[in-house]
Design a protein that fits this description.
One of its GO terms (biological process) is protein ubiquitination. InterPro entries: BPM1-6, BTB/POZ_dom, MATH/TRAF_dom, SKP1/BTB/POZ_sf, TRAF-like. With 342 residues, this protein is of the alpha+beta class. The chain has 2 domains: 151 residues, Sandwich (Apoptosis, Tumor Necrosis Factor Receptor Associated Protein 2, Chain A), CATH 2.60.210; 122 residues, 2-Layer Sandwich (Potassium Channel Kv1.1, Chain A). 30% of the residues lie in helices and 29% in strands. The chain has 11 helices and 14 strands. The strands form 4 sheets. Strands 2, 6, 7, 8 and 10 form a 5-stranded antiparallel beta sheet that branches. It is elongated. It starts with 13 loop residues before the first helix and ends with a helix.
């Protein structure tokens, strides 16, 4: 007998998709350059007070020709403490890329003792760094180390050659770079080919072929569907109870539902899927069938669909249907909707 099952897309192949290698790949890089510079200022204590600023020679990171320099204020007066300090600021002089006029960077500035230990350290207050505009804007601190401590021989800061050591550690953040990377395709079969030999596909073919069918299911309008007792028993406790009776018939009359509902119920029993193209027309009838034959997953799928279609016009009908089929969650959604429109 010709099967009444419609052809439909096979679902539930997600697990196959999740383990396959990507067909294309892209990489976003955020380049970071880290380097440091030690500036040694000899005869520091002899620098004239009139010198407001002293600049270091230009220096560059190992892999770039960007030019940086450090400015030292040998004497800065703090009105609050009435003490004299040194101030240190970092500047960007120029960029290797002439089209650029600024860099984003963070920094750590340390004053070292004669043994190379950090005695006074300050750092950029922003984790993401600050903008350095070439030749214009620098960043640092006016009050870093007290002069009296630096000049005190007992503090071991300058040593016998009167040298001030300033260490500047710099982290430069480059511009974001996107790259497309070709990936070899190792997939031997496409989704349709893999789905064609799945258990879902095989069981759909089984019902279409009527191979070894041993039971006939008859719908309300007299349409007949060939099926397999073993499959129906395995999926529905109601069918199982029917077939375990001593005088089990070779035909099952189901006067409650039209052929299209029986067709789609059997399709679900064999494949665990619904016919998506028709669910909008028969979801309520399919829910009643699922409740009658205790097909819990089918019942949940129908509930889910009907919940997405709640409207003012269907509100009372869906509430009655949810009560009839013991659909607690659907009933709750309908009542929630009724509250919003009341």
């Amino acid at each position: 007998m010709e099967s009444k099952f419609d052809r439909t897309r096979i679902a539930n192949e997600n697990i196959l998709k999740s383990v396959r290698a990507p067909l294309t790949k892209s990489i976003t890089e955020f380049p970071i350059i880290k380097f440091n510079h030690l500036w040694c200022i000899k005869n520091f204590s002899l620098i004239p007070i009139e010198n407001e600023l002293i600049c270091s020679p230009d220096f560059s990171p190992p892999i770039s020709k960007d030019k940086w320099f450090i400015k030292l204020r040998p004497k800065t007066f703090d009105k609050q403490t009435e003490a004299e300090y040194i101030g240190i600021h970092l500047f960007l002089k120029s960029c290797e890329d002439t089209s650029k006029s600024q860099q984003r960077a963070k920094y750590i500035i340390s004053v070292l003792d004669v043994d190379g230990n950090r005695k006074f350290t300050v750092e950029c207050s922003r984790q993401e760094g600050r903008i350095f505009k070439a030749g214009i804007e620098g960043h640092g601190f006016k009050l870093i180390a007290p002069r009296d401590i630096l000049l005190d021989p007992n503090r071991n800061m300058l040593g016998h050659d009167d040298t001030l050591q300033i260490l500047c550690e710099i982290t430069v953040f480059g511009e974001m770079d996107n790259k497309f990377v070709p990936v070899r395709d190792f997939n031997l079969y496409n989704d349709c080919e893999l789905a064609s030999r799945s258990i879902t596909s095989d069981f759909a073919s089984l019902i279409k072929s009527t191979l070894d069918c041993d039971i006939i299911v008859v719908s309300k309008d007299g349409s007949e569907f060939d099926a397999h007792r073993l499959v129906l028993k395995a999926r529905s406790p109601v069918f199982k109870a029917m077939f375990e009776e001593e005088k089990a018939e070779s035909r099952i009359e189901i006067p409650d539902f039209e052929a299209v509902v029986i067709n789609d119920m059997l399709y679900f029993i064999y494949t665990d899927n619904i016919v998506e193209a028709r669910i909008n027309k028969i979801a309520d009838q399919l829910l009643l069938a699922a409740e009658k034959y205790k097909l819990q997953r089918l019942k949940m799928l129908c509930e889910q669909y009907l919940a997405s279609k709640i409207s003012f016009e269907r509100c009372d009908y869906l509430l009655s249907l949810s009560n009839l089929c013991n659909c607690k969650r659907l009933r709750e959604k309908v009542l929630e909707f009724k509250e919003t429109i009341s």
